[in-house]
Amino acid sequence: MIRRSETDEKTAERRLGLWLCAPAALIMLLVTGWPILYSVLLSLQRYDLRFPKERAWIGLANYGAVLTDGFWWNAFWVTVLVTVVSVAIELVLGMLLALAMYRTLVARGAIRTLVLIPYGIVTVVAAYGWRYAWTPETGWLAGMLPEGSAPLTERTPALAIIILAEVWKTTPFMALLLMAGLAVVPNDLLQAASMDGATLWQRFFRVTLPLMKPAIMVALLFRTLDAFRIFDDIYVLTNGAADTSSVSVIAYHNLIGGLNLGIGSTMSVLVFLTVAVIAAAFIKGFGISTPGTQGGRR
Amino acid sequence: MEHSRGALVRWSLVDVLVVLYALVPVLWITSLSFKDPATFTDGSFIPRAWTLENYQGIFDNADFTRGLINSIGIGLIATLIAIVFGTMAAYAVARLDFPGKGALVGASLLVAMFPQISLVSPLFQIERALGLFDTWPGLILPYITFALPLTIFTLSSFLREIPWELEQAAQLDGATPFQAFRQVIVPLAMPGMVTTAILTFIFCWNDFLFAISLTSSNRARTAPATISFFTGSSQFEDPAGSICAAAVVVTIPIVIFVLFFQRRIVSGLTSGAVKG
């Protein structure tokens, strides 16, 4: 008797669990799973909305066209460059900011609040702030540059400004994640190290950093994938002029500007594959335990 | 704990730096928004002639007010649905044992890492075929999808912290299971749901790529997208003043959220992303 009611309870629990998850799972499947399959199908077709009659299956020809295209590779390397440089700067700056927020003696609450502002501000709005700051005439920063320079129209300075905008916006997020990591470092361990004569630097590099490694890796993974999607900042700052398109910007222009569904979808698929490779490399290569995977219940 | 004067001064200096860092582009855009068109390009940080003209202009602009309404409506609806479905799933993940739990958590993780641009081409085509292109549901659906992983991770880590024995205790005192859940657990879970709702709303408010790709008119275009389509009233007029004023208006609700819910936002972000 008891045994049966226990198994009944188990079945009921299973059924309840499935029902509770069904809506969320269905939406995610319908809005990401199906479209990504559909974009694979579209990427195998010649399909330009301006010439709908020429629609035809062409196999991998779109991939050939994109992968031999200079604009695509330029956008790809711009994206990689912006991702690597901005995430590297954010890690260092975010760590400094996290230490400042964690250790500060004055107005700790106020500091933590203000640091969240860049996180909350609409990226497009912040990007306009930076754009006007670097535009001659309206710009206070551009005003400090030599007469006649327009940094947003030249490739290298424009890329530097794009990285600056990205770093400004997302360093607080990195800092918050790192601060959560700092909180797990036990204070008595640091004190013990200090008693043993370890300097501030030694304590940081030998005690704090190794203990924070999991938090750092997760923060890096999330920020890298996020930076690889960069779109808003570039759209507002240069809109891809002077060879500053990212993969997202170039895919957007092919689709919305060019109305070329075939090529746009091919780029979509390629971005998806790249992100999958990056994620797999982080998870396999660095052995990150991703959030949620420890599962279980209390 | 007593601190030396020197340490206090040093930390205050650090604080000032942090504050300046956080506010730089915001201060600049605010200053521009109050500048008279005549002094707009004078390069001075503080406006020499203050004016509210830019603000009057954008509120007289039907596209912008419509964009604000779209942003608020789409953001609220998407947040509400994401919270309801996300809470259900998070409860199941935190409390129940069922087949496919690992798959759900893994799928949400995949969605969290998904590059948005990869959805733009197929969604553009699917939504046009279904008649969802340039409508509220056309934006609400992708927003819910990208908000769900956030809700599931943040809330399930939050729900795990609740002492569920309280539920049993209430039942022993004669409450029905539903009463026990309603009156004991829901109030405890509320702060977590509020936190998650704020994060979700900020995410929807912030989105730009979907908003410019899946709309073609002011029917569903949200405020950030509207701003980027601003043109002056004639082709010789620079819309910069309007853009700045609109940018400040769009920023205000978020700053209010951040000021009021700072502590919760921090705990939500860190628990959602790190602890799981």
Strand content of chain A: under 5%
Q: State the CATH topology of the largest domain in chain B.
A: MetI-like fold
Cα distance, first to last residue of chain A?
27 Å
| Helix/sheet category of chain A | mainly alpha
What is the percentage of strand-forming residues of chain B? under 5%
Assign a percent range to the helix content of chain A. Answer: over 70%
Give the distance, in angstroms, between the N- and C-terminal Cα atoms of chain B.
35 Å
Structural class of chain B: mainly alpha
- Rg from alpha-carbon coordinates of chain A: 24 Å
What assembly state would you assign to the polypeptide chains in this entry? heterodimer
**String of helices and strands of chain A:** HEEHHHHHHHHHH
Q: Say how many strands of chain A there are.
A: 2
Protein name (chain B): Carbohydrate ABC transporter membrane protein 2 (CUT1 family)
Transmembrane segments (chain B): 12-34, 68-91, 103-124, 136-159, 180-203, 240-261
Domain ABC transmembrane type-1 (chain B): 68-261
Main location (chain B): membrane
Walkthrough of the structure:
Chain B: The chain crosses the membrane at residues 12-34, 68-91, 103-124, 136-159, 180-203, 240-261. Chain B: It is found in: Cell membrane. Chain B: Belongs to the binding-protein-dependent transport system permease family. Chain B: It is a multi-pass membrane protein. The complex is a heterodimer of chains A (298) and B (276). With 298 residues, chain A is an all-alpha fold. Chain A is 72% helix and 1% strand. Chain A has a domain at 70-258: MetI-like fold, CATH 1.10.3720. Chain A has helices at 2-43, 61-67, 70-103, 108-120, 123-134, 155-182, 187-195, 200-228, 232-237, 247-257, 261-285, and strands at 45-46, 56-57. The two termini of chain A are 27 Å apart. Chain B has 276 residues and is mainly alpha-helical. Chain B folds into 2 domains: 1-50, no CATH class; 62-271, MetI-like (MetI-like fold, Orthogonal Bundle), CATH 1.10.3720. Chain B has 11 helices and no strands. In chain B, α1 packs across α11, α6 (136-160) runs parallel beside α11 and α7 (165-172) runs antiparallel to α8 (177-206). The longest helix of chain B is centred in the last third of the chain and has 36 residues, at 240-275. Chain B is globular and about 75 Å long. Chains A and B meet through α1, α3, α4, α5 and α6 of A and α1, α3, α4, α5 and α6 of B.
